[in-house]
Each structure stands twice: as structure tokens, then as C-alpha cells.
Amino acid sequence: MTVRVSSHEACPSRSPSSLTTKKFRKSNRFYLDAENGNDGWSGKKSTPEEGAGPFKTFLGAINGIREHRTSLRKNVVLFVRQGIYFLSPTIILDERDERLSIVGYPGDKRPVISGAAKIPGSEFFMFDQDKYVARFSGKCSKHVFLGDKRLIRARKPNLNKWTGKDMTGEGPYLTIKDLLRPSEACDRQGSGGFRQTTCHLDNRNGFVFEKGDVNLNWTKPSAGDILIFEAWTAERGHIKNISSANKLQFTEPLRFPIGEHPMSSGWRYIVENIFEELDSTGEFFCDEEAQLLYLIPPEDALLDEDVFVASEDTFFIVENTKIIRFLDLEFRHSHDRNFAGYNQKPGVIQFEFTNNVLVERCLFSNIGYTGIVVDNSCTNVIIRKNKFSDVGYFAITSGSETKNLRIHKNTFEGCGVSNMFQPSCIFVQGSANIKVFDNKVSKTSYAGMRIGWQPTFSEDFVPSGQYVFQILGNDVSDIGMGILNDFGGIYLSSNPGCSGPNAILSNCHLHARVAFNIIHHASAYLYGGLGVYGDTAVSSLRVEKNWLYDLDGAAINFHCGQNNFALNNMIYHISDGRVFGTCNPIVGGGVLLQQDLTFKKNVVYVTDINARMWRPADEWTFEVPDVDKNIYYFNPFSQDQLDQFFPKGVSFQQWKDDTFNDLNSVIDDPLFKNIKQRDFSLRGTSFASQIGIQSINLRKVRRSSGIC
């Protein structure tokens, strides 16, 4: 039987056949072929041959290899022939499988490993005008795909235009009318301030809607969800009932009360998976009770494409073993275990207590939750030259005990597609030698990368000049997409012990270097589309020699913390907000924590006359920040701006006189080579060199980062 699945052969390119063959010449070889194999065979031959032909399934192959391999000391390779492999159950690799490589067969098309139940396009029949329906067996999923395009659950309001690569949190939106239980300090008008911290917990249970936005006559409202937007998260509530008083209630309370963030939430919500709202191309409705899947495909699409309903959340668990390789494979159509929240799992591939891992030249697409999870004391892990696209939550994550992790030259496009609990493409924690470099990250509903968010270290945890984390030479763009708030292209944080009035700052050091990155085009719903963001008093950050431009928030923010440096960055500031963020009492729970930072040899080119260096809430105590040898330039020029631009709303001269900062800084055109083409290297005649600022040419990062 032929299964139609769209090809992604172009990127990343396959390893050369000759190189692959040579690499595994001395390995014990086994073969897997979904079309022509048999699990009763030995797997020793690549083509059908009675008794010795290829295996048919992954489970049969792993069991067969365990039976037939003669020694764990010799490398073994499983060559996977082209085709699609529907994986169930999860494959567990353990100490019996050390030195195993799973490799796409040289010269074939890349094999596809799918966690979906397939419904052939031919099994759909017209139901009503442009609607089609087919029977299916199993449970409904939020993750349904037409070929390689993600379908969207029937929603209200509709997307402006379905592309198959859409974020489920994209607008337009409906607007909440009122709270179930308002109070003087928490109401629809935001009387409690920018953040209403005393909202009644009853407001986790539902809300009051505008008449007409929710319909009492929906036939199956209990199948529906409401996607509720907060500030830096969005979460789903499952519909329990709808009353004639225009009140909607959830089956389970939300994590956070509606109303806490009256401005940054925008009071937004989206209705999902309601049959009557199935009215736009690219939408589907799943009726689990009737075992029917309805959808509206593009015209004639079902003639060429099949439909895939994700059902498996984890494909491989690799535990307590070593020397494991995944090469030249494609992973598609994973589920999310119906979980949404702050958890790195489930992942398509999960590594635990494993040493010496390589994932190379693989594709991960149409992922329900996480792509790769590196957890529980894994060491010596390399993830390189892969492409990740259409990822529900994280593409790659690692745990806080991880050591020697290299994430290199991967391409990421589309993360946080469905789970919006502070998603990102890369979320790395670790304790030694974590290096993320030469990657291309784009299109996320929140951050591009999250670094840390873990138990942090003392200031002397590593020798001076060494780092736990190095984030180097990455191109990070199109972050946030106007969906959530308060994030950075590269977002670093510590742990809860580093916030509040009793914070112990001596153990808040992350030891991270962020250098030679291009971070651009970040947009939040209301606030906080930053470049590099050090949050929660995270300390020992060195942010240097980056290009930071076209952001709707600050280029760099050290939100409290100590021993933090911003050095020799090129900043092209287009927003009306602050250029650089410092401490405020929020991190300290109302108490202003001690801050120690240096901002030197940076170029700050400002294009909005309302922009300021600091914002009024940014403060410091104890030590005045060390700011010097910078170039500032204002285009267009405004005397009013210049008189108020510097911290505390003062002029350049007063800032220097009051704090002895910027004594060697100047206001002058830095002479970027080509602003229109976003080339922020400096011309040879720039004054920058006279005060020690180096020209940084990062055009190569833009051209050659990532694998695609």
C-alpha cells in the first residue's frame, strides 16, 4: 500500500551515500523496510530474501538486533529504507542497545517516522458544500495534518488566512466582557492597576462574554475549548456549560485567574473545536463520540494528500545507555498527551541517563509538544544540522544536570505553535559546557531561546573567563509575533530563590556568554519584545558583540542581578520604549535588590524621538551602573529627547555630572555601513575605534547560520 506524505528532501540535505557507507563499514549492519520487510527475518539483508531480508517494524528490528548481535562492544547500525513508519508503541532503547546507530538508508529518500493514524484522502466524502467528513478510530487530537500542513481546530474568530504553518494563538480575537466575580481591586476596567494581584480565584472558572460571541445553540459545546490569553502565557479551558446570562464555565479551573493582567492580556480569547464554527479553509472538527473527523480542505487537496491524526507523543526513549546515533531520519506527527503546562515532556525523542549521543541531519516537523528532550544527567550530546518546524512547544530542551551539550547549525521555524506556557525553540539548562551556536531561529509565539531557569551557581563556580553556557553566532528573528508579552530573543533567567525580599543573590549566577548573535524583529502583544533579557536577578552574564535591531522592546535588559556586562553591541533602536533595562522592585517583591552592571563600548542608534535610555521604573541602589565609552546617535534629532534621554530623565551633560558615567562617550553618527540592508558593521572613518569600540561584521551569521 502506498502512503502519500509530502517530501522535505531539500533541507537538510542527506549525507553523501559514500560517506555514510564508509562511516559504518566496520559496523554490524541490519536493515528495516516498511514496505518489503518481515519481522520474522534476520534483518541482515537490505532486500527481501527469505530468512535474511529486512525487518518490517521498529519494534521487530530492535528486538531482532538484540537477539542477533554478538557483542555490545561492536558498533551496530540499523539502516532504514525509505517509506513511512507508523510508530506504536514507544520504542525503548536501553543498555542492551549501546553503540546503536539508526540511519536513513544511503541513496534512498529520507524515511518518515510518524506518530499518526492515517486517514486516506479518498475516504473523505462531501458532507455539506465545502465540508468533508471521514470515519476514524481512536481519540481526537489537537494536532491534525493535511499532508505536511497543520489544520486548525474550527475556531471563532477565523484566521485571516490559513497557510498550514499558522500559530494557533494568532489573532483576530474575541474579547471578554466581564469577570465572574469582579471586585474593587480586580475588575474589567483594570482598577487594580497594571497587574491585579488580588483577583478572586472564582475567576479561574470562567467569564462573562459578549452576547453573540458564544452561542447557546451549539450542538456540542462540551467538545470545545477556550484559549485564554494572560500576559506571558495563554491556556485552554474546556467548556463545561454556557448560561443564558452570558456566562461560560470551565470543567477545570485555569492556573491563573482571568483579570490578573488587564492590559497585557487584552482580555483576548479564541473559541476552538466547535462544529458550528467549522466555516473556513484549513479548519477541522473532531467528534470523538461519533468517531468522525470533519474538515474544510483547499479545493481538490484530498485528491493528492492524506490526513494524519497525531496519536503517539513519544517515539523513542533512550535511557541508561551510551553511543546512540539518529542520522538522516524524518520525525512527523506527534501528539501532546493532552497536556499543556510547564513541562518539557513528552518529546519525540527523550534521552535520560545516556552518554555520547548524536542527532544529525534529521527533520522534525508537525510536532505536538517537544522535539528532543535531553534529561536526567545526560552527557556528551551533539544535536546538529537538523531542521525543526511546526513545533507545538519546544524543539530542543535539556535538564539542569546536563553536561557537554552542543546544539549546532540547526534551523528552527515555528515553535510554541499550540502550547503557550512561555515556549521557545531552544530551552537549555545544564551544569557544564552547554554550547548553542550557529543556529537559525525564527517564528515563535514567545522567546527564541530560553537559557537557565534552573538552580544557579555561585560567582566562583567556574574560573574567570569560562562559562557554563555559551550562546554564539545565532540568527534569532520574528519572535513573539504579537501574541504574548515579556520575553527576549535570547531569554536568560535564574530560579525562584533569586526573587523576593529574601533573595540570596550570591547563588544567582548563571555564567553565560551571549556573543556574535543577530537578534531582530521581535514583537509582543503589548510590551516586552526584547533582544537579550536577563530576568529574575540572573547574574554573571556577558552580552557582547551582538547586532540588536528592529525590536519593539529594549535591546538588553538586566532585570536586577550582579556581575552583568553589555559590551560592544550594535543597537539599532526603532521603538518608542527604553533602549536598556535595569532593576525595579518587582523582582524583589517590592524591595529593590542590589544590582551590579556594566554598559560599555556599545553603539546606540535611536530612530524614535520618544525613546529613552531607561524607563522611569528602572532603578538601582548601592553601586551606580558603570556606563562609558559608548556612541549615541539620534536620527531624527530632537532636542527635547536629548534633554531627557539619559537615566532618570536627564540630559547627557547632567548624567555625566551627576554620576560620572559616560565621561568618554560621545553623541555622533557611528557610520553603519548600510542601514537599509541592516549591515551594522562600521565604516573605517567611524569615531568608534578611537574609544575602543570594535566594528563587528555579522553578515556571515545571517548567511550561514542554520542548515537551511
Automatic annotation (TrEMBL):
Signal peptide as annotated in the record: none
Domain Right handed beta helix positions: 349-524
Matches recorded under InterPro entries: Beta_helix, PbH1, Pectin_lyas_fold, Pectin_lyase_fold/virulence
Start and end residues of each stretch annotated as Disordered: 1-21
One Pfam family this sequence matches: Beta_helix
This protein's name: Right handed beta helix domain-containing protein
